[in-house]
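Thread: "does anyone have the structure for this chain?"

Original post by V.I.:
We have the sequence but no experimental structure in hand. Need at least a predicted one for the grant figures.
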Amino acid sequence: MVKLNTNIARSALVDLDSDLRPLHSRTYSNPVYKNLCLLSAIFAFSVGLTIGILIPLVYLMPPAIKNNTAASVETLNTTAAIRTIFLNNSYGYKNETKVKMYPSVSFVENFMPQSKSDSSLVDNGVYWGIKVERALPEGYRPKKHAVWEDYVKKAVAVKMENGCGRMQNRLVTFQDGLKGCVRYRQNTDQIQGELFSFYLAKILNLPELGSERPAAQWNSNRPIVLTQFISNLNSANIPSVFKPAERHLNKFDVINMTKNEVLEETDMIKNFVELAQWSDLIIFDYLTANLDRIVNNLYNYQWNENIMDAPAHNLAKKSDSDLLVFLDNESGLLHGYRLLKKYEIYHSILLENLCMFRKQTADVIKQLKSKGNIGRLLRDMFEKQNSDSVKDILPTIPDKSVKILNERIDKVYNQISKSIA
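Reply from O.Q.:
Generated one for you, tokens below.
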């Protein structure tokens, strides 16, 4: 009896002890809660360690590594990210604070009066002045095109050899020693692109494209393009104002260049003559959506930041006149238009930062915008300047291309209007 009561008492005492333990002690004795506590501690430690390592790295990282890292991240993003790689300095800053930080972009809001010495270089703040226009090389005018077309009709080729760039091209020598380049392509749209880009250049009065003539010959009655061989050509580099660090051209850029005391006036005018031709080139390549010139460099910049120092693709300069020659325009108006979704951002980057124009080019753009007749002009030139045999093989420019070209003419017109507003 005594022994039974003792066991009962001991059992009651154990139960009482269990009930008197603190609640948190009983809770943490559960294995589930122990694991949660451990995971929380590990997570907090990891976060703290990561932050502790990253903060010193960010602030102590060399600037070059910082910039490369930022550029690499940006290329993975969309259109907006691509624009941040090439800083937009022409119209990107409209508020007062940023205009003070970047005075070169405020020429629209704060139009500075020109001195007499500047008026011959820049007209009305957006057009190249008379001194620059008079110094421009003559190039290939309509009379030269007509002479070449008449010559080809009668010329007799006596020799054909490798040359003129691509593997399928050939250098042809005529009976009197004059030379030409034969461009043979597998796809007719490459011939169309070359031909209609040339017609567009004639409409724009650009002197930088040499004479061309289509002919139905070569192999299986395929059309070819026969161009006059141009001698004394050197490579042409991209001007510094169009490189990513300083990728804009406006009146203040020109004025700043005139303050360079090292350059004599002759050399300074020579630089402006090249820039004036580049302003035509940017408009022409935007209209045709040419992929094989400066856009090629811009696209590859995301992998090679030194590519802007390399010569521009399919662009040459005549050593005896400083004339820029726009070569191989076969991607224009057709193939380039098919790839606009991928490359339009690079075309726009250049156009949106161009704020200096040749007056005659701007006037033609205004007329084309007003009349909306670019399609008819191109087709009329194609009909009048080609034989029936060529027209049987080579189609005219398609309606879809004309529609896109009109849209791009509108954008060029708007850019010019924005510059003079």
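V.I.: this helps a lot. The radius of gyration is 34 Å.
O.Q.: and DSSP finds 19 helices and twelve strands in the chain.
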